[in-house]
Amino acid sequence: MSRKIGIIVGVVVLMGILFAQGDPHYMWGYVVNEGDGYPSAECLIYKAFLVGHSDTIFYPGDSRATYNESNGGWSVQIGGWSPRTGDIFVVIFSDTCEHTQGYDTTVVNMDSVSQGMGLTTLSVSAGISGKSLRPHSFDLIVSPSPFNSSCEISICGTGRVEVGVYNCLGNRVADIYSGDLRGILRVKWAPGDLPAGVYFIRGRIGGESVVRRVLFLP
User: Fold this and answer.
1) 169 exposed, middle or buried (CB, 10 Å; 0-12, 13-18, 19+)?
2) Comparing C-alpha atoms, which of 37, 210, 28 is closest to residue 104?
3) Rounded to whole angstroms, how far apart are CA atoms 11 and 142?
4) Residue 6, by phi and psi: left (phi above 0), alpha (psi -120 to 50) or beta?
5) What is the chain's percent helix, strand, coil content, to nearest 5?
6) Is residue 204 domain-resident?
7) Domain of 193?
8) Pair 159, 146: CB distance under 8 Å
9) Phi/psi at 38 (5° precision)
């Protein structure tokens, strides 16, 4: 009897360890086209990965990735990658019929077996501000996002402008521009040896501040 109890206890402990590791761990959410309902399953493609991990999951074609066009629900099973809390998860969508794109990122939390990421809206100008550049107004537009080697930052305004790049920890990692501006200025930013991930480009002019999120994928 004591031997059986020992075996049962051992199995329970093992299951607890496996669950604590979050294997399988599911990332999930919903995707929608801006003003045009859910993407068709025949048109939607997406890829998902952990920053710094060599493997990538593709939909369609990978059994670890699913999509339900009736409600826009998607899911990805990443447990086989042995993810850890703090890893950065990235999912990039493309609707090939509507020619729209979008992406989302989150920090992995292994305290549960699944993790919802909410709603991702696809648009023709994914990652780019939808506002037009207008004289005498302050705006900052970044394109493209995600990007591989460099992106273009368009700054519109009148006055003393300061633009910098910050990482997810809030540390300033690059200075883009500091000086007087009247009209539109376009500059390139190349992260170089900076690690892949999400960065925030912040512009300030007078009492106004604009922040844009970009995704760097070298």
Assistant:
1) exposed
2) 28
3) 52
4) alpha
5) 10, 50, 40
6) yes
7) 139-216
8) no
9) -85, 145
| CA dist., res. 88 & res. 213, Å (int) | 15
Is there a single domain that holds both residue 38 and residue 115?
yes
* Three-state secondary structure call for residue 16: helix
Provide mean pLDDT across the span 187-211. Answer: 86
Same-domain status, 100 and 152: no
- 5 inside domain: no
pLDDT tens for residues 205-216? 877 778 888 888
Which CATH number is 149's domain given? 2.60.40.1930
Give the residue carrying structure tokens 């990421």. Answer: 117
pLDDT digits (tens, 9 = 90+) for 69-106: 999 999 999 999 989 888 888 888 888 888 888 888 88
- Cα-Cα-Cα-Cα torsion 114, 117, 123, 126, nearest 10 degrees, comes to -110
Burial of 162 by CB count in 10 Å (0-12 exposed, 13-18 middle, 19+ buried)?
middle
Count of domains forming the chain: 2
Taking the C-alpha atoms of residue 152 and residue 171, their distance in angstroms, rounded to an integer, is: 21
Flag whether 13 is in a domain. Answer: no
**117 shares its domain with 154:** no
